[in-house]
Amino acid sequence: MLTLGLLPGPNEVRLHKINHYLSPIVDELLEFWNGIEIPAAGRKIRLALICCSNDIPAARKLCGHISASVSCHRCYKRANSISNKLNFGGFDDMSEWFVRNLLKHRQDAENWRLCKSEEERKRHVSLTSVRWTELLRLPYFNPIRHLIIDPMHCLFLGIAHWIIKKLWIDGNKITKHDLELMEKRAKIIKIPADLGRIPNKITTGDGFSGFTADQWKSFILIYAIPLMWDLLDEPDRKILGNFVRACTLLVCRIIDDKTLSEAHEHLLKVAMLIEENYGPERITPNLHLCLHIADCCRDYGPLYSFWCYSFERMNGILGRSL
Ligand SMILES: [Zn+2]
């Protein structure tokens, strides 16, 4: 892993201001795209940026898209508004979402630069969902297709957390007593030692407090069904069953097109079941974005090749060394 830069704190850099940090990196990427001679090897090499893997806020800043709570960056789905709260409910018009148009995106981003005031820029972004990013100076760069949906943030820190914490624990479907029972059950399950940290501190805080992305993954893939099945009613069992099946298919190290289609169908069922049983206002950006994961796999291969787990570990190492 090559660290090209660290953004200074204490707060995250805001929106397009990230361009000040991207600009020198893009200058170097342009040199590499044009070709660099390696005399010792007697070769000329070229290098291109073809995949951006981030959490949602970083993804939107890096590639110049509007907030994920307003609009998807890969298709034309925009959030609905119910009593001033945005959601991504409604699946009847899926055929109309289709992939975004790259040429129009580039034109809209160029037009953002021509805006003469902050107000004009804001109006432009709410109309087009696009702002300028320095990455667009790379002639080959596609800020729609090269910006993947990170499965670690989307599936495990996003949807797993949303279903179990927000829908079931906060909705009193899973009680404190149920959490204690689940923790007891988790402690008697023996799993191979190389599966990472065992998520057995289920009752901490309000439940599942401090769970890492790794623990959410282990919980969903191994523990969720045996620990929770008899505690859930029928619709919630269907939600859990479909979600666990989708994740189990997606984390395979070798994955084919048929498996991807099956995983996609299960994720779509999860979103539609949540809409049917909890209402469209409970459809979060992640429940929409996960419907693009199969296409990301078709571009980049199995999840292991592009998810953020290795970067997250690197963040941990960097954080400890500061
Ligand atoms: Zn979309």
TrEMBL record:
Superkingdom, natural source: Eukaryota
The protein's name: Transposase domain-containing protein
UniProt organism field: Rhizophagus irregularis
